[in-house]
# Entry
Amino acid sequence: MNKLNIMLVGVGGQGTLLASRVLGTVAVKMGYDVKVSEVHGMSQRGGSVVTFVKMGEKIYSPLVEKGEADIILAFEELEALRWMEYLKDGGRMVVNEQKINPMPVVIGKAKYPENILEKLKEKLGNISSIDALKIARESGNIKAVNMVLIGLMAASTGIVRDTWLDAMKEVIPQKLLEVNLKAFEAGYAEY
# Structure
């Protein structure tokens, strides 16, 4: 692997930051240079949250520019649509089939866009969608959506599965580890 540019996009409270820590730890375990940059909106109010994770032989900047992301993990459909132009040609998007109404929709000033997944598939082609919230719930905790998405993505990277599991054991608090490992495995099995 020369380099891998990953974007995690979602809204506050969905676990994008923990997921980026797992990705960064995987990179370190593989002996790669890694840079992580977090861009917060009003994350405590459900605003947009974006995290860039770049890994490779030598990484100079943590930012991913438009058209440079190898992978976008979208924790919510509208965020996938909002950030799709960052995906490079031939890149892959993994989308959680969840809709979280932003404030303009909540107060009635806007409508949530329709048919987002269809639009993404038409424009991007290489997109995987999954009901990560349902799988997380079945795994024991709805907050494990992030690990379901990481699991699905991990299965496609060629990075050894145990590297992901070891990184999770290092980053995730012990009391939450079992449910997160179960969610990861369920996502991994969906590939």
